[in-house]
Amino acid sequence: GVTCFDTAPAYGFGRAEEVLGRALGPRRPDAALVSKCGLAWRERGATTAADWWRDGSRSRVAAEIDDSLRRLGTDRLDLYLLHWPDPATPIAETAAALAEVLQTGKARAVGVSNLSLQEIEEFQRVCPVAVVQAGYNLFDRRIETGILPWCRERGIAVMAYGALCYGLLAGGFTAETRFDPADWRAGGRAFGLELFTPENFPRNIAVVEALRPVATRLGKTLPQLALNWVVHRPGVAVALCGVRRPAEIEDNVGATGWRLAAADLAEIDRILVAAAGNTGPPPEW
């Protein structure tokens, strides 16, 4: 079943942690609980992403871990991550703060998210990195040329976020889909990739539709195909995806217990050649 829950204070300005903590209740020991630090927001009137900023200072990390534990109703996290690097704070300072979290027993392990390989190496010199979280899916394979093999060689687990490519691989969009102006995908970019721009979106929808018969032939849904591909990549420990309804969770569980054959993987790669806007440097790295 599903036992790993990934959250962060920035998701709903603390609200997501509170809801998850209440939902787990006495079942907390059965869950692997992941949260993050390194972002701050205005205490009053914060409503959008524009209301928060990066802060990886030692004092901020120390305050955030206690706030997260309180909101989640637990005394220790299974994994605590630096959410984003803070250009105003040396990586070594943030790493030292995470090392203190580890030493005080407030987290079983620590890791990083959205760092460049150089930044991960710098962090690792101060604090052991157990997990690296990065965007990875059928469309976005940027970590394959650096971070993923580096982690694999060192036995560091990779948590792949955006495994369904921010809804693109969920199969519910069409070429006529238009995003609400408040939806970040309306800007056309997804973590540095121009997957949702007016010129690229229809082409990527065509790619998704070409993948659908592959899933059908295997007796799987499109999300199951996409998640299975991610979770079985060498070095990937977890494929993260967001859900809104219980039925989506039940469907996603169907991504486990089987593997794509070599011929299927080759066919998927051939289909993805037609993708548009899926290359480029990682965002802000």
Structure, explained:
By secondary structure, the protein is α/β, with parallel strands linked by helices. The chain has a single domain, classed as Alpha-Beta Barrel (TIM Barrel), CATH 3.20.20. 35% of the residues lie in helices and 13% in strands. The chain is built from nine helices and nine strands. Helix 1 (15-24) packs across helix 2 (58-72), helix 2 crosses helix 3 (91-103) and helix 3 (91-103) packs across helix 4 (117-124). It is globular, with a radius of gyration of 19 Å.
Keywords:
seven-stranded parallel β-sheet; 285 residues; two-stranded antiparallel sheet; TIM Barrel; alpha/beta; 9 helices; globular
Q: Which range does the strand content fall in? A: 5-15%
Uncertain parts: none
User: What number of structural domains do the residues give?
Assistant: 1
- The neighbouring-strand order within the major sheet is 1-2-5-6-7-8-9
Order of helices and strands: EHEEEHEHEHEHEHHEHH
What would you call the shape? globular
Task: Explain the layout of strands and helices.
Elements lengths: L3 E3 L8 H10 L7 E6 L1 E3 L10 E3 L3 H15 L6 E4 L8 H13 L6 E4 L3 H8 L6 E5 L11 H8 L2 E5 L39 H17 L4 H10 L4 E4 L6 H8 L8 H11 L13
Parallel strand pairs: 1-2, 2-5, 5-6, 6-7, 7-8, 8-9
Antiparallel strand pairs: 3-4
Helix pairs in contact: 1-2, 2-3, 3-4, 6-9
